[in-house]
Amino acid sequence: MTSIYDQRPWLAQxxxxxxxxxxxxxxxxxxxxxxxxxxxxxxxxxxxxxxxxTLRELDAxxxxxACGLLAAxxxxxxxxxxxxxxxxxxxxxxxxxxxxxxxxVSVNPMYKQREVNELLRDSGASAVxxxxxxYGNVRPVFDGLVITTSELRHQSRNDPxxxxxxxxxxxxxxxxxxxxxxxxxxxxxxAVSPQSGDVAVLTYTSGTTGPPKGALITxxxxxxxxxxxxxxxxxxxxxxxxxxxxxxxxxxxxGHIGVSxxxxxxxxxxxxxxxxxxxxxxRETGATFTVGSITVFIALMxxxxxxxxxxxxxxxxxxxxxxxxxxxxxxxxxxxxxxIRNIYGMTExxxxxxxxxxxxxxxxxxxxxxxxxxxxxxxxxVRIVGENGEExxxxxxxxxxxxxPQVVAGYWKKPEETARAIRAGAxxxxxxxxxxxxxxxxxxxxxxxxINAGGYKVWPREVEDVLYEHEAVREAAVVGVPDAYRGETVxxxxxxxxxxxxxxxxxxxxxxxxxxxxxxxxxxxxLEELPKTxxxxxxxxxxxxxxxxxxxx
Length: 553
Fold this sequence. Notes:
Layout: H1 8-11, H2 29-39, E1 44-48, E2 51-54, H3 55-71, E3 79-83, H4 88-99, E4 103-106, H5 113-123, E5 127-131, E6 145-149, H6 160-163, E7 175-176, H7 177-182, E8 199-204, E9 214-218, H8 219-231, E10 241-242, H9 250-263, E11 267-269, H10 275-285, E12 289-292, H11 294-301, E13 316-319, H12 326-336, E14 340-346, E15 351-355, E16 375-376, E17 381-385, E18 398-403, H13 415-421, E19 422-423, E20 426-435, E21 441-446, E22 451-453, E23 456-458, H14 460-468, E24 473-483, E25 487-496, H15 504-512, E26 523-526, H16 540-551
Parallel strand pairs: 1-11, 3-4, 3-5, 4-8, 5-6, 6-7, 10-11, 10-12, 12-13, 13-14, 25-26
Antiparallel strand pairs: 1-2, 8-9, 14-15, 15-16, 17-18, 18-20, 19-20, 20-21, 22-23, 24-25
Helix pairs in contact: 2-9, 3-4, 8-9
């Protein structure tokens, strides 16, 4: 019997003539890259400030790096940690690790020594590739092979917008990546052919609800969702992919590196996101496609060089990783022209399991004010289930459960966590949402983020959407904090737009006029910046801890 959540009966009204299912064209991520090299070997594949790397050059550099790893003792199945910003060396190293038959381990470059140590110990990494200025976080906690590189490599000038005053750093005991590659110039490693089910990358969850877990992203996961970006979002060889998402994050892995390697579309990298520099780079490179957190687009809207034509070439804009207020989508379109389209997914779904089709606009649910996260992508069935696992009717709120080729194999060395989250191949996301009568899905919130105010349930996202409607609000996050009367009450943390002023009382009154009495925030605290993960996701847990301390709990 076909589930009411099977996307095939109703997807046709949204797509552009593409089949409902896609067949993976390659057995592994190396095959899809090799096919692009054969098609257009001299086409640029990476742009980094004034530097350009062609497909042929990337193939050779990653071959030589793989030879260096093998000569240093790295073997098939070994884990190699990549502790880098958005630099070309990340892509070179990733491909090089795959060419050894190894597994790449993504490490957030914002992590400090303790956090790096946790991931290296958990993954059992035998080698680390890191930037020189991050070496001090690695050497004291790791006695294996360390390969360092400078962020200044692979560009023809020291661009002062990002690297003013940056110099090389001495890293005693480390191997230099450039020298390692040069030592194997022109050499190729023995051919490997990973299976679709072999692990390509260990990508650690952001840890917003607990300790990070290493998600086992397979080569099949990478290939399938790279094709999703190509066929659903319409990214092709004529596009220019703008790398605003961190490459260590699953969005950067698939929505930047994966789709670029698959299609041959050049990937623009610029070390790390800074809004003024980002706008300059969009103008200089003619970028046409990007995907990033909504905080990225809020930052672009508030950049000093954000004139009407700033994003003139950027015609395919997607956002995921955090809720998108409808008011922000409207304001972005009014300011720049492009429409931000939603994707929804997580590390465990290798980026998107839902997306708004390129030529459609996401509806807003009139009852909740939530913007739809789209419809399930190719080959994907999504159900809404109740507390006992029963399938709920359309319109009812329950947990989102995803089945499809993008669901990861599990968590690294955590069989109990795997069994809890992935049952019979279906991922229980922990997110709460519903599907409307037309097949559009809406995410209400995380189960664990729900606020219980005197027995009344409050979803933070609904309150945040109202706050975003105020002209002075740049970013907002809502959490539950202890309350002597209600047990728990609603508190909002807000950062303001440049040059705008508003009092906490005014924002409380603004929400009070638009929300039920138990929903509006009783407290508003202003912060210059809200805490986020490296991918731009708001850290509610950190705000909750801050709120409890302020309340004396």
